[in-house]
Request: fold
Amino acid sequence: MTDNPEQTQVPGNAEAAMNEVLAAEQAATRAIGACEQEARASLHETAQRARRIAERTDERIAIIHQRTRQQLKNHLQNAEHAARTAERTLAREDPRMAVVSTVVNDLAARLTGGDSSETTQAD
Reply:
């Protein structure tokens, strides 16, 4: 059996094939390691971008809240001012308010023991 030249070459070919398989396995292991490292780096970068987006979103929300509070405050001030103005206008234009004012002044004068004419003149 050793006379056959093909049989003597087989072990050499098998050894070469095994070496090729081992080299390919090592290359694959290195490639897997490189892919894992690249994936970790990509994941880290993505997490950082997500944090930056969340921070900017929080800042924008805070600004929107601040502006909304200020607008609400302005609207309330304007509404209160308009209400006071309307009350004054109504008091000047409604003749019944003069009667109410006189009655209130007279009552205040009687309760305090003062002269109702003093209270009326003070207005």
Summary: The chain has one domain: 30-122.
